[in-house]
Design brief:
- This protein has 425 residues and is of the alpha/beta class.
- It is built from 15 helices and 13 strands.
- The strands form two sheets. A seven-stranded parallel sheet has the order 2-1-13-3-4-5-6. A six-stranded parallel sheet has the order 9-8-7-10-11-12, with helices on both faces.
- Mean pLDDT is 91; it is low at 403-410 and 418-425.
Amino acid sequence: MAAGRLMEALVNNGVKAKMLVRDKETSRITVITNQTSWLKRQWDFVFERLCIYLRNGFSYKRVFLADIANTGADITRMEEFRKADVIHLHWVNHGMLSLSDIERILKSGKRVVWTMHDLWTATGICHYAGTCEAFKTECRSCPVLTPGGKGRDLSTTIFRRKQKLYASGRITFVTCSQWLRREAVQSGLMQGQEVVSIPNAIDTQKFRPADKTEARHRRGLPTHQTLLLFGSVKVSDERKGFAYLVQACQILAHQHPELRQKLAVVVVGSHVEEVEHQLPFEVWKQGYVAEEQAMAEVYAAADIYVTPSLEDNLPNTIMEAMACGIPCVGFNTGGIPEMIDHEKNGYVARYRDAEDLAQGILYCMEPSRRDDLSREAVRKTQRCWSQQSVAKQYLDVYEDKGFKTDTVKTDTITAEADKDKTDKE
């Protein structure tokens, strides 16, 4: 989603941009695929997972926590590649580009920019390091492979391959949050590399304040209750912190029994049935919402967006909610405190503190401050994440001008592995 929105922002600001995806599921002419056969794409995906499975102690649970980029497609022969001035990489795993494919891109001599949507580019194989700090020197004893393992392993091998790759050509790495930049520059892979921070962009014409009552009618939601919104591709994903939302709600129900009738929780995502019984409030399931317009209606229908993620970069969901004028409550972790200004447009709770999360929900529920919080959330979005603001910063990077204000029309191609649809990441 972030890559697609950046492409739109660039096009709207004078750049001729196309987006290269592994699996095209749209009719937009600005989105292209490398024409690799479906069979090869599936084999590449399965082969990479098999290689990880054979090295992680045969754990299916951990097989999707790592990527080794040993499969992909050579895009340097494509006409779009040859015409491009800038090659802009995004999330290129799951058989989109291998490390060898990226090496070919670097050898072409074209300007290469790589936006990091998680920490994978700065580690051996994991997307989020958690408490592991091995990536700061050299990955080994990877807990994603075998918890408690010792010595050199697959993470070491891939770490060294990336080290050699990054030394073979110039890449400007871009992080979507200052938090991710602080983490990335500590990596042994990033020593001597260019790492700048530019936030994601959002279309404030799609995500904007709307009539709450009308939005609730459209989504089949109650009009007489305060609605808390939680969203995740997979609600049961531990990293998304749903368990802390449950604890916070239990605290609220115990300390304020009257809220059992006044408060309800709206949940967007899959696997809701596994956890909904844990909440002491009425639950309204929205399932997986693919269309942006439909998701904007869900935000507009809510009163508060709660994001108890334990580790996150610059969540699109917070940006979307704030653009719709919805105050957000989240933990002080990752890029979240860069987005939520404490007690100004939302509430930043102490990390892993369910009681403070509950306090944040109460704070944002207060009718006397709700309008101010909503107004400030919209202002923050327009000031920091508008298409024009983000596009200008990327244009300066493309033209190697740092963060000057000059803009020059250029051709660019963005590479993105995930399917071109509105997946929430």
